[in-house]
Each structure stands twice: as C-alpha cells, then as structure tokens.
Amino acid sequence: MDLGKLGVWYFLDGLSSPDAAAAAQRIEKLGYNALWIPETVGKNPLVLASWLLANTSELVIATGIVNIYHREPGVTMAAQKTLAEQSGGRFLLGMGVSHKPLVEGVRGLEYGPPVATMRAYLEKMAASPYSAIAPDEEPPTVIAALGPKMLELAAQSCQGAHPYFTSPEHTKMAREIMGPDTWLCVEQKVILETDAAIARGVARPVATMYAALPNYRNNWLRMGLAEEDINDLSDKFIDATFAWGSAEDIRQRIDEHFDAGASHVCIQPINPNGKMGDLDWECLEQVSSI
Fold first, then answer.
1. Which fold has domain 6-288?
2. Helices 168-178 and 247-260 meet at what angle, rounded to 10?
C-alpha cells in the first residue's frame, strides 16, 4: 500500500451517502493520499469504507478507528480482507480500544485492560480462518496508541500506530519507542484562522468533547500539560494540540510531525466559519497547494 504522506481525518456522519462519496472524490482530486473515518455512534465505518472505496479510484480509505468491542476478531479480519480485495489494496484498518465511558456507559459492555485486550484481539484475528479469495497482499493494520506500552505493541504486532489528539513532542516519543521502520500515522487538528482569540475559541468546544476521556487526559499529562491546562482548556493546551493560523503555519506543524518521525499525517480541519462538523474546504485546498 502506498499510504503517502498526507491525509484527511473527518467525521462523515453528518453527510448523506452521496454527499460522503462526493467529499471523498473531492479530497482525492485535491491530492490527499488517504481519508480517515472514525467510529462513534453513527455510521458503520466498514460499511462506509466499502462505499467510499467503490466511489474513488486512488484514495486510501482508513479507519481511525474501528472500536474492537463492537466486533468479534474474526469478523473484523474478514471485513478487512474483503475490503482490501474489493479495492485492490486501498483499505487500511485502524483499530482501537476506545474509552471506558463509551464502551461501558454507551454500549453496556465490559471494558478490559487496554494493552492486554488489544494484544489478545490481534492474536485472535491472526488465528481466524478466511476461506474467500484473499487480497493480493496482506492488508495492513494500525492501532490507536498513545502510551508507551500500546506503542510498543503497535511496533511488535502490526504495521504501526495511529495517535490521535497529540503533538509533535508526542510524535517524537512515539518514534523513539517504536523504532524506525513502523508506520506512525498521526492525526492533527487544524484551524485556518490567524486571529488567536478566534482560533482558540473555535478549538475549545472541540476539545471539550474529549477532555473528560481518561485515555486522552493521561496522555496529555504525559506530554507535560498540567491538570489545570486540561480543565481550563488553556492557551497552552490549545496551542499544543491544535495547529492554527495560515496555511503556511499549518504546514509548519505538519512538517514538525514529520521531523519528529511521523510517516503520515492526517489533518482534521475544524471550520471556523460554519457549525461544528462542517468540512473546511478552503483549509484543505490551501494546505494541499503548499
């Protein structure tokens, strides 16, 4: 798979299926190499991936991430191989353990120890039978990883890691833990807005959605942010985890991730002029042109 260097990470739940296909086609035409789609309580990302792959020709469709609690390991493996075979190798499976409040509070499932649960899931996937026509190459897998132990597992047991809501400093730490040859596919939230007060004001409602989730909080503390930075969504917190400013400023942050060891950066454009969830095409166009 040629994942390329630059992708887009975006929630498509607010779009109809035809509009989602049109968005993927437009992202492909802009020259982005991949489109990453999440899983929360909306569209099924594997079903959506099939639709997007069928409506594009070169774009890699990646999941960022599939929640492992929602599917038996063999079912996930079968979906992965089916999508890879259908698309000629353009599907990248990103999986994660999600968060205890979502798994137990929303789904009513039992949340296990993250690293041990992910390790067992990967082992069961590998041991599951698959009798259909296989893709030409074994499809790649990355896992959501923030802490050292999950990053080590990513390096040992699959193609690499997909860190979310971090910073170039975290990317540097991740590369040092994972070694030089694994995939490090980093998500970066971006805002095309040069006014600091406006940009930070746009960022804070987005950050609020994540601030209570323990996996993220623990990682932000690991990154050197203080509890009060997280609780208050301070300027320091926003500036560490969001890239805002001109397209050149955003590109500089992307390059900081590459300099720190990222192999792929997928940007999540937060629209300063629309409602939350509106894709900022001006941002994507300007960043892709640099």
1. TIM Barrel (3.20.20)
2. 20
